[in-house]
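quick q for whoever's on today - can somebody do inverse folding on this one?? i tried earlier but teh output was garbage lol. C-alpha cells:
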C-alpha cells in the first residue's frame, strides 16, 4: 500500500465492539426500561453470558483508557464493593421468574484479582446462588501477572475458572518504564507456568503495538518471547491514543509514538511472525493456536464481537454487573454508571444503576448484522442477508455504493453477485471498511471521539 492510500485510511474511527457505538447511546434507556427487559427475559428459556466488572487496580498504567479506580490493596475496599455488587445481583436475579443458565462467565476490570482469595470465593458463591453456571463452558478472568499469586490461581482453578487472560503489553524495559507498568519477562513466564501446571484450558495474552518507544526491532523481541511461551490466544491491540478520554496519556512524548506506516510495519511484522509459528489470524486483531476454541469458532463462522472484543458467545443474551458494565438484552444496549460513588448511591437507593443505553431500530439491527459479519467473518453473504431481512443488499445499501466502489478500487474488498469478501489487505483496514456502513458516523460527518484506525 502506497503512503497516500495509507494516510487516506489513517483516520479516527470506532473499533465496533458495539453498533451503534457508545457515543450514540442516551439516557433514554433508564433503570425502569432495563427492569422491564429483565422481566421479559426472565420468563423465557434463553441462556446468559454474564460479565462482572471489578474496577480496582493497585497502580495506574498510563496507556490504559479502561474504567478503573486506583486503590492500594486493602481488604475493606473489596468488602465494601462486594456489598453493593451483591445487592445488584439480587436486584437483577430477582426480576427473573426462573433461574437462568450462565453459559459464559467473564470477570474483567480493572484487575479482578485485586480481590482477596476469600472475596473471590464469596463472589463466585454469590453468583452460584443466583444463577446456574455451566462449568463446562468458558469461565474466564483477567489477571495482573505483577500481583497474582500461585495460591490465588489455585483458588480460581478450584472454583471452575478455565481461561486466564493477562495483560503483557510489551517486554521492553524502556517501554514498560514509560507506560508505568514494570513487568519483567521472568515474572510473566512464572505466572504462565503456574497456569499450565494448574491445567487452565486456555491462557491468553494482551499485547499492544504503537506504544511510546516501540520500534520494529524491540517489539519483535517481545513477540519472539511470547511465541516461546506459547499462549493459546493473543490479542494484538493497536494503542488507542485518546488523551481526551484518558488524561494520563498526556504524559507521553508524542515524538516517541510510532505513526502511520511505521506503526503498521510493527503490526505486519508481528502478524507474519505469529502466522509462521502456528498461530491463526482471527478476524481483526486476535491470533489463536489452531487447537483453540476461538480458532474453531472463526473457522466455522461462529465468532462474535462485543465490548470485550471477540468472543465465542455461546449464550443468547448478555448481562453486565458492576460499575460501567455493559449488557445487550432484547436488542437493547444498557450500561451502568461509571462513577463508583454514584454506583454505590444508586444501589443503596434500590435502583438499577443504569446510566445510558440504546434501543436498536430495524436499521440499527441490519447495519449491526453487516458490521458484525465483516468484523468477525470478513464477508457478507447477500443471500443470507436477503433471507434474514427481506431486502436485496444492493438496494438497501444504495447510498453506500460509492464506499463499496472505493474499497474495491483500493483493494480492500472484492464483490460479486453472491457476497462481499474482504481481502488480506482489507483485513488490516477492516474498521475503515465497516465505517462506510455506519449510519451515525455518516450523519455526524466526523468521528473525532475515536482512536485512529492505524
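ok took a stab at it. sequence:
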Amino acid at each position: 500500500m502506497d503512503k497516500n492510500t495509507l494516510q487516506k485510511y489513517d483516520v479516527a474511527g470506532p473499533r465496533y465492539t458495539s453498533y451503534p457505538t457508545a457515543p450514540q447511546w442516551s439516557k433514554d434507556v433508564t433503570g425502569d426500561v432495563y427492569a422491564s427487559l429483565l422481566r421479559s427475559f426472565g420468563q423465557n428459556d434463553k441462556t446468559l453470558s454474564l460479565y462482572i466488572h471489578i474496577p480496582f487496580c493497585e497502580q495506574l498504567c498510563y496507556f490504559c483508557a479502561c474504567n478503573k479506580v486506583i486503590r492500594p490493596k486493602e481488604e475493606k475496599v473489596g468488602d465494601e464493593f462486594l456489598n453493593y455488587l451483591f445487592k445488584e445481583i439480587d436486584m437483577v436475579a430477582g426480576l427473573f421468574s426462573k433461574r437462568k443458565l450462565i453459559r459464559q462467565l467473564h470477570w474483567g476490570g480493572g484487575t479482578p484479582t485485586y480481590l482477596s482469595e476469600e472475596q473471590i470465593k464469596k463472589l463466585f458463591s454469590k453468583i452460584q446462588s443466583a444463577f446456574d453456571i455451566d462449568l463446562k463452558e468458558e469461565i474466564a478472568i483477567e489477571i495482573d501477572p505483577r500481583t497474582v499469586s500461585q495460591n490465588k490461581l489455585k483458588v480460581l482453578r478450584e472454583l471452575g475458572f478455565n481461561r486466564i487472560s493477562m495483560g503483557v503489553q510489551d517486554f521492553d524495559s524502556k517501554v514498560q518504564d514509560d507506560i508505568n507498568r514494570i513487568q519483567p519477562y521472568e515474572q510473566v513466564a512464572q505466572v504462565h507456568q503456574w497456569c499450565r501446571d494448574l491445567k487452565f484450558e486456555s491462557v491468553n495474552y494482551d499485547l499492544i503495538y504503537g506504544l511510546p518507544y516501540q520500534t520494529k526491532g524491540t517489539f519483535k523481541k517481545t513477540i519472539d518471547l511470547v511465541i516461546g511461551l506459547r499462549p493459546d490466544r493473543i490479542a494484538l491491540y493497536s494503542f488507542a491514543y485518546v488523551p481526551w478520554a484518558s488524561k494520563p496519556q498526556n504524559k507521553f512524548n508524542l515524538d516517541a509514538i510510532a505513526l502511520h506506516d511505521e506503526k503498521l510495519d510493527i503490526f505486519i511484522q508481528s502478524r507474519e511472525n505469529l502466522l509462521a509459528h502456528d498461530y491463526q489470524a482471527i478476524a481483526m486483531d486476535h491470533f489463536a493456536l489452531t487447537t483453540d476454541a476461538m480458532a474453531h469458532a472463526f473457522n466455522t463462522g461462529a465468532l462474535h464481537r462485543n465490548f470485550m472484543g471477540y468472543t465465542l458467545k455461546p449464550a443468547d443474551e448478555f448481562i453486565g454487573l458492576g460499575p460501567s458494565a455493559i449488557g445487550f438484552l432484547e436488542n437493547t444496549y444498557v450500561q451502568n454508571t461509571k462513577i463508583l460513588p454514584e454506583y454505590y448511591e444508586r444501589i443503596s437507593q434500590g435502583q438499577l444503576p443504569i446510566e445510558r443505553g440504546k434501543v436498536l431500530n430495524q436499521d440499527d439491527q441490519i447495519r449491526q448484522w453487516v458490521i458484525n459479519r465483516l468484523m468477525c467473518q470478513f464477508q457478507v453473504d447477500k443471500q443470507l442477508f436477503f433471507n434474514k431481512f427481506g431486502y436485496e443488499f444492493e438496494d438497501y445499501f444504495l447510498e453506500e455504493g460509492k464506499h463499496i466502489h472505493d474499497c474495491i478500487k483500493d483493494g480492500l474488498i472484492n464483490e460479486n453477485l453472491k457476497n462481499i469478501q474482504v481481502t488480506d489487505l482489507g483485513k488490516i483496514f477492516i474498521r475503515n471498511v465497516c465505517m462506510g456502513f455506519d449510519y451515525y458516523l455518516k450523519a455526524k460527518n466526523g468521528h473525532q471521539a475515536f482512536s485512529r484506525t492505524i
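fwiw The chain has 18 helices and 19 strands. also The first strand starts at residue 48 and ends at 54. so keep that in mind when u check it
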